[in-house]
Amino acid sequence: MTAKRIAFLGLGVMGYPMAGHLAKAGHQVTVYNRTPARAAQWVAQHGGTSAPTPAAAASGAQIVLMCVGNDDDVRAVAAGADGALSGMQAGGVLVDHTTASAHVAREVFAAAQAKGVGFLDAPVSGGQAGAENGKLTIMVGGEPATFAAVEDVLARYARAVTLMGGPGSGQLTKMVNQICIAGLLQALSEGVNFAAKAGLDVERVLDVIGKGAAQSWQMENRGKTMAADKFDFGFAVDWMRKDLSICIDEARSNGAPLPVTALVDQFYAKAQARGGGRWDTSSLIRILREP
């Protein structure tokens, strides 16, 4: 692969290792993080350089990637006064890995298009472990030519990179992902709790049914930790509630009923009320154990 000048904006639990894979692949990487110490730590570990603003990091970059918190963060980092677009040149590509709304994806696409910059909404699935191991699934919205220009770069930290359609399609696909996960986790919580109440060996139950039609990633990776009441890791309840609010808002627009998703969202609200905002999403079982 030809080395490229890349900027990576946002070095949280996902962005930090994702940017690291690009540096290991030989790209020239400049990073920006709202907390400068985090960027300095990344540079000390991976090399490259850091910049004080998104615009400064994006200046001269052929590809700018970002992974921030929510819609407001996307707007500020991409299109704010010191945002990436103010530092990018025509012909560059901006890729947003944030899980955000389809509306903001289309908004930034239009702002990028006005500057002659390509834009892709490209949320990821796979969690921190997927980011660290370079095994994320990336669902992408945007134009085919823009996607083709950066697909090989995204593949450095992914096992699958798929163009789903036009602007916003990546975010819409991620919403489907989160809707499915919410339902699966609630069902798994009910099943594990039922097994315990029935006096069964829960781990043995999971081993057996995990070889049949009930098998899922959540069962394989979270079933036994749920049984052991361990939740100090993984994808936080706070983040899931943010994602589900995006799903529910979108459903109001497109008319898709989400009765189970809305119910599970309220269960997560109960976890937050108990101080569990940073618990893993599999902590739904605690609401069943202690109603």
CATH level-four homologous superfamily name of the largest domain? NAD(P)-binding Rossmann-like Domain
Amount of beta strand: 5-15%
Q: What count of helical segments does DSSP give?
A: 14
Query: Alpha-carbon distance between the termini?
Result: 54 Å
**Can you give the mean pLDDT?**
97
Estimate the helix proportion, in percent.
Answer: 40-55%
The total of beta strands comes to 9
Which CATH architecture of the largest domain is right?
Answer: 3-Layer(aba) Sandwich
Query: How would the global form be characterised?
Result: globular
Structural class: alpha/beta
Kindly identify the CATH topology of the largest domain.
Rossmann fold
Largest sheet: 6 strands, parallel
Order of helices and strands: EHEHEHEHHEHEEHEHEHHHHHH
What strand line-up does the widest sheet have? 3-2-1-4-5-6
CATH class of the largest domain: Alpha Beta
Q: How many separate domains? A: 2
Low-confidence stretches are: none
Rg calc: 20 Å
